[in-house]
Amino acid sequence: xxxxxxxxxxxxxxxxxxxxxxxxxxxxxxxxxxxxxxxxxxxxxxxxxxxxxxxxxxxxxxxxxxxxxxxxxxxxxxxxxxxxxxxxxxxxxxxxxxxxxxxxxxxxxxxxxxxxxxxxxxxxxxxxxxxxxxxxxxxxxxxxxxxxxxxxxxxxxxxxxxxxxxxxx
Length: 169
Prior knowledge:
This protein is an alpha+beta fold. Helix content is 37%, strand content 33%.
């Protein structure tokens, strides 16, 4: 009888070891899956923010598109897309810029000084750049996506660059 009990104990220990290995494997797969899901969600959120910011800027350009009103300038040392407006004989300026991981918009009277953090936060975004091209074209790049806008008519032109996504109306 002692031999049977000893064999039974070894079988029980062996089954428990296999069960523990299985449980640890399941936990590792679940943790890896959760990490991958979290990374994919973050990438998706960032790409959605890039598309949203480019759509937002496209809408602003279209609604304020008059010859010479929209241009690229510096706002407190930061590159910004700027457009001027006049209301009741007073000059106003709107600047869209990137500051501390966010896209900001600041509407102010021309000649008044403001700091970048006084603008309105639009969306979190890693980076944005503005580039003046020839013939009234402006390239706006947000992260990995770009659009090219014709600032005099509000029309867009497609790029052949594979890295560039052109948001169509």
